[in-house]
Design brief:
Elements lengths: L1 E7 L5 H10 L3 E4 L3 H11 L8 E5 L8 H13 L5 E6 L2 H11 L11 H18 L2 E4 L5 H12 L9 E8 L10 E4 L20 H8 L2 H23 L4 E8 L5 H13 L6 E6 L2 H13 L1
Parallel strand pairs: 1-3, 1-4, 2-3, 4-5, 6-8, 6-9, 7-8
Helix pairs in contact: 2-3, 4-5, 8-9
């Protein structure tokens, strides 16, 4: 039997993850009182049981100490039960925004501000997060991308290192992304903006891609960048990093950066050892600016 404990920060996506696992064939139980966890595991682990995949949701509640949860999990391991821990997380600002948008009350905030509840919860959960088998940060993850990630881990059984890599294109004129870990400047390449037939196209168009990648420097840059990331990523994983944002910038974030971000994503997507997403921050915005300038 495959047994997954789903926990994490309130607002981090635990309920969504459980629903997705249920769709994938897991028998899911959420909000089970801690006192019943051991009995539940015993029942579903009976030889001959038809249940082969189980996901159990556990989170911080005002009426129980999370120390009780940790104690029960330790007792289950001692008794020989095998399970994996999936920890759903998100940045503090994102969690606060989600609570304010839904107008829900944080379980640890009570009469205090949501911020205080989030900080208390993170302190309580720091040990189980540290011991989790998988940590997924949903701060910038689409629902579709989360499903793909969960399927990769719990359905396709691919290797997972709790690292989500975001390849992002952006325009320097719109500012460097605040969450970027690595910033690459590709303004050394000729700008398609000054080619009349390419001016109003983007790096998602084949004509622009052929133009940009037609320069030997673009191919050499991609080789060096890919080689650097092959070296960096395993070391980031070893140090416990769970999110890496690789930001590739050109002037407006529409042509060169989009082309090279697409190319990097293509080269990295079949690695299978980490999560990967592609994001073009300024492409649509810059396209509207250019269109407005052309019509004025």
């Amino acid at each position: 039997m495959r047994f997954v404990v789903v926990t994490g920060m309130s607002g981090g996506g635990k309920s969504t993850a459980l629903k997705m696992l249920e769709d994938a064939g897991y028998y899911c139980v959420d909000n089970l009182p801690v006192s019943l966890v051991e009995k539940f595991v015993e029942l579903v682990s009976v030889p001959g049981s038809e249940v082969s995949k189980v996901a159990l949701g556990l989170d911080v509640r005002t009426d129980q100490s999370f120390q009780d949860v940790t104690r029960v999990l330790e007792q289950l391991r001692t008794a020989g039960y095998k399970f994996e821990i999936l920890f759903m997380d998100a940045e503090e600002g994102v969690l606060i925004r989600r609570y304010k948008e839904t107008r829900r009350v944080h379980p640890l905030a009570q009469q205090e501000r949501v911020e205080e509840g989030v900080r208390k919860e993170r302190k309580i959960l720091e040990n189980i997060r540290r011991s989790a088998d998988y940590v997924i940060d949903t701060s910038n993850v689409l629902t579709r991308e989360l499903k793909e990630e969960l399927d990769r881990i719990f359905v396709e059984n691919q290797e997972y290192n709790s690292l989500m890599v975001t390849v992002m294109s952006f325009g320097f004129k719109h500012g460097i992304p605040a969450d970027a870990d690595l910033v690459l400047d590709v303004r050394f390449l000729p700008n398609p903006f000054y080619v009349e037939d390419l001016k109003y196209k983007t790096g998602n168009d084949k004509e622009v891609q052929d133009y940009v990648m037609g320069f030997p420097e673009a191919g050499e840059f991609m080789e060096k960048l890919t080689d650097m990331l092959r070296f960096l990523i395993p070391n980031y994983v070893k140090e416990g990093k769970y999110r890496l944002v690789v930001a590739i910038g050109c002037t407006g974030g529409k042509h060169r950066s989009v082309t090279l971000a697409n190319e990097l994503y293509k080269r990295m997507k079949d690695n299978g050892k980490y999560g990967l997403k592609l994001y073009h921050r300024d492409m649509a915005f810059q396209s509207r600016i250019d269109a407005g300038a052309a019509s004025s």
